[in-house]
């Protein structure tokens, strides 16, 4: 514990401001919060900041869906996120948003420095465009068939099945996740950062950080694959409409969300420094000491990020390159963790295991989950599994059975027989027993620092077992029955409660709320691990109240059911907020993270029930579009000429012009139409049927499609 004191800026990856925080997010925030608390208790100075990632197409579309401005959306979500994190015991010094003036200024500064250094370029790019939403599509808003392994429904940048990366234009049969429409190619001028300029620097940084323990070996090994064919330039611009920061001097061009998102770490820290220095001008925090490359080197400060393995490339290639090109310091460490599964499988909304943080908090104690995650978290990228039965058993056995029960067993005797006062001294053998346990637990400090929380907890539980064995052997409940053994009872309870205190100190970073109750009971307010070196003797204890309870499995079951219900409620709320009945429900999407599924159209409430005989009256057929054109004199209609197989050709007028502004692109497509609808004479001609589409009208309409292999005239049953 006598190592040099360190001065650290610590961050967690920014939650995306497009939905609630779920338990997958909580893994990361708990991991970083435990580390920060432990480093502070070891005597180091840590400034701990985070923010909401508030830009991008998903924010814009979600706000549109809800009929509010993006700024109103991110303000509401900020309140939800900060409340959820606070109630999980995650204590940031400052929590901001990337949509801030400080972030705008820093992002522009970095861009201008890269541009001045010759590290940027521009060129026209062909990109997919959604003709329905009239917007260019980010790679993750396009799906289709992988050109390599032919897996269906793969994203526009990489296949999750075979791992192959590609351009969205390489997809087979692509479609827009936003509207479902087939995208078209359009050309636009894009801006790039020339990553190849930083290849040598990045290789050196990776090697150096790996050697210093700032990057896990498995991360570096994966990153080195990127250098095989040389680093490609990184596309950092997006076209309007887009919610974000406009690129200086380039109207209609916006920074890609992954440009300004990591800059948000620094901008949030700047806000924190400004606020702190205004209150404490006598002990200011110098922003430059942590951010400017030369100042950071002189001051010896550190910048440590905690992230999930899905965003490694952004934090370990793009981000250090941007910082270096702007004369700023690269991260000291990027700590990467694995994904969270529940009961051995991906979190599932249908099974109720996709649990929002708030849903968990409505049913269960935050410290319970913090403890369970700590028992799983190590320094590698191994995924974590929330085994719900194991969660229940571990909390009940460890926290209650092995830790809290030490105090609940002995506190009553101290108050009943000794006026709430501990013994003034311990016999030499008992003091040696305590000192040995305290010395052994000192190893937890370095284990916490190395993020090997699982090993730290195992060591703590080992000492807890020792303490419980001591209590069981001495049996204070039997000593209390013999008045001649009061002195022995006094010593036994004093040592047992010092064991409890020792465990409480080392568990404090993991279960801060329960530890706070323990401090209140002990009449202390320790802030350092050093407090564990010496037992408290002759101290007066406060009245003991239960510090935590066992988990009742019915509350886990209630949480699962509520998660199913919350999904249903969220969908219903989205329908109510949608401007049209089939507006796609955009999932909560983190930039660069996997979108769970293509956006699904939300229908109107079901119509009155019909019989099978009623349905059988409809003659639904497949028609192949032979011609499609605008109708002169109508701003709503398109004229279709369909090949209806044995039924011949059919002319149908359909009011979908607003949704399909380029009707010639529909030629050759198969559609579904009602063949036995009475012909309708219109001033433009005779309409001989009805083409089926989904949507609420206007631009929000989507033609139904059929699988490859159908033929014109086939009946739809």
What is the share of helical residues? 40-55%
Please state the second-level CATH architecture of the largest domain: 3-Layer(aba) Sandwich
Q: Which class of secondary structure composition applies to the elements?
A: alpha+beta
Q: How many strands, what sense, and barrel or not for the largest sheet?
A: 6 strands, antiparallel
Query: What is the strand content?
Result: 15-25%
Total number of β-strand segments?
26
Radius of gyration: 31 Å
The stretches of 5 or more residues where confidence is low (pLDDT under 50) are 569-606
CATH topology of the largest domain: Rossmann fold
In brief:
This protein is of the alpha+beta class. The chain is 40% helix and 17% strand. The chain has four domains: 299 residues, Rossmann fold, CATH 3.40.50.620; 74 residues, Methionyl-trna Synthetase, domain 2, CATH 2.170.220.10; 168 residues, Isoleucyl-tRNA Synthetase, Domain 1, CATH 1.10.730; 105 residues, Beta Barrel (OB fold (Dihydrolipoamide Acetyltransferase, E2P)), CATH 2.40.50.
Describe this entry's structure for a reader.
There is one protein chain. With 717 residues, the chain is α+β, with helices and mostly antiparallel strands. The chain folds into four domains: 1-118 and 197-228 and 249-363 and 552-585, Rossmann fold, CATH 3.40.50; 120-193, Methionyl-trna Synthetase, domain 2; 366-533, Isoleucyl-tRNA Synthetase, Domain 1, CATH 1.10.730; 612-716, OB fold (Dihydrolipoamide Acetyltransferase, E2P). It has 21 helices and 26 strands. The strands form eight sheets. Strands 17, 18, 19, 20, 23 and 26 form a six-stranded antiparallel β-sheet that branches. A hairpin with a 5-residue loop joins strand 18 and strand 19. Residues 569-606 have low confidence and may be disordered.
């Amino acid at each position: 514990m006598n190592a040099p004191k360190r001065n650290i800026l610590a961050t967690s990856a920014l939650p995306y401001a497009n939905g609630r925080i779920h338990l997958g997010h909580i893994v990361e925030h708990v991991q970083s919060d435990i580390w920060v608390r432990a480093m502070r208790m070891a005597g180091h100075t840590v400034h701990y900041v985070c923010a909401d990632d508030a830009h991008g197409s998903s924010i814009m579309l979600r706000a549109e869906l809800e009929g509010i401005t993006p700024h109103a959306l991110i303000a509401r979500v900020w309140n939800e996120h900060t409340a959820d994190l606070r109630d999980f015991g995650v204590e940031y010094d400052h929590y901001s948003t990337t949509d801030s003036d400080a972030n705008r200024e820093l992002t522009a500064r970095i861009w201008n420095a890269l541009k001045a250094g010759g590290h940027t370029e521009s060129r026209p790019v062909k990109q997919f465009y959604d003709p329905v939403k009239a917007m260019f599509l980010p790679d993750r808003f396009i799906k289709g068939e992988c050109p390599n392994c032919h897996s269906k429904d793969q994203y526009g940048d990489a296949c999750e099945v075979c791992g192959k990366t590609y351009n969205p234009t390489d997809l087979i049969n692509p479609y827009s996740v936003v509207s479902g429409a087939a995208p078209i190619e359009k050309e636009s001028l894009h801006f790039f950062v020339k990553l190849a300029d930083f290849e040598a620097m990045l290789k050196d940084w990776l090697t150096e950080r790996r050697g210093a323990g700032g990057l896990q070996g498995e991360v570096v090994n994966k990153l080195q694959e990127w250098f095989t064919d040389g680093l490609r330039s990184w596309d950092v611009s997006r076209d309007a409409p887009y919610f974000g920061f406009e690129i200086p001097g380039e109207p209609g061009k916006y920074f890609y969300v992954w440009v300004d998102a990591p800059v948000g770490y620094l901008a949030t820290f700047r806000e924190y420094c400004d606020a702190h220095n205004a209150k404490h001008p006598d002990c200011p925090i110098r922003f430059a000491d942590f951010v400017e490359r030369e100042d950071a080197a002189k001051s010896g400060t550190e910048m440590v990020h905690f992230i999930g393995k899905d965003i490694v490339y952004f934090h370990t290639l793009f981000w250090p390159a941007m910082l270096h090109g702007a004369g700023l310091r690269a991260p000291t460490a990027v700590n990467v963790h694995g994904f969270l599964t529940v009961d051995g499988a991906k979190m599932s909304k249908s099974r109720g295991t996709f649990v929002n943080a708030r849903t968990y908090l409505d049913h269960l104690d935050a410290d319970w989950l913090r403890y369970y995650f700590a028992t799983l978290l190590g320094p590698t990228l191994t995924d974590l599994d929330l085994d719900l039965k194991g969660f229940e058993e571990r909390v009940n056995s460890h926290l209650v059975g092995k830790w809290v029960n030490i105090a609940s067993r002995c506190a009553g005797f101290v108050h009943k027989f000794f006026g709430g006062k501990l013994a003034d001294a311990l016999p030499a053998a008992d003091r040696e027993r305590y000192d040995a346990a305290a010395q052994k637990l000192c190893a937890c400090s370095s284990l916490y620092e190395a993020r090997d929380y699982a090993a730290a907890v195992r060591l703590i539980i080992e000492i807890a077992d020792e303490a419980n064995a001591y209590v069981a052997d001495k049996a204070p409940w039997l000593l209390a029955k013999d008045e001649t053994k009061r002195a022995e009872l006094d010593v036994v309870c004093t040592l047992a409660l010092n064991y409890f205190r020792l465990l409480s100190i080392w568990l404090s970073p993991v279960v801060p709320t329960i530890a706070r109750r323990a401090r209140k009971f002990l009449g202390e307010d320790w802030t350092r691990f050093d407090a564990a070196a010496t037992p408290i003797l002759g101290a007066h204890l406060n009245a003991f109240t239960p510090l935590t309870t066992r988990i009742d499995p019915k509350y886990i079951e209630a949480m699962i059911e509520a998660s199913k219900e919350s999904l249903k409620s969220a969908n219903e709320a989205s329908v109510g907020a949608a401007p049209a009945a089939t507006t796609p429900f955009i999932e909560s999407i983190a930039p660069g993270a996997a979108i769970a599924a293509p956006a699904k159209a939300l229908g109107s409430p079901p119509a009155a029930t019909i019989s099978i005989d009623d349905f059988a009256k409809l003659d639904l057929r497949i028609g192949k579009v032979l011609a499609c054109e605008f109708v002169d004199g109508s701003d709503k209609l398109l004229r279709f000429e369909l090949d209806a197989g044995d039924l011949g050709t059919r002319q149908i007028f359909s009011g979908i012009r607003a949704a399909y502004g380029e009707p010639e692109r529909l030629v050759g497509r198969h559609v579904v139409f009602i063949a036995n609808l009475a012909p309708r004479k219109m001033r433009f001609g005779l309409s001989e049927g009805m083409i089926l589409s989904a949507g609420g009208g206007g631009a929000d309409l989507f033609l139904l499609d059929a699988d490859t292999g159908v033929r014109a005239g086939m009946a739809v049953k």
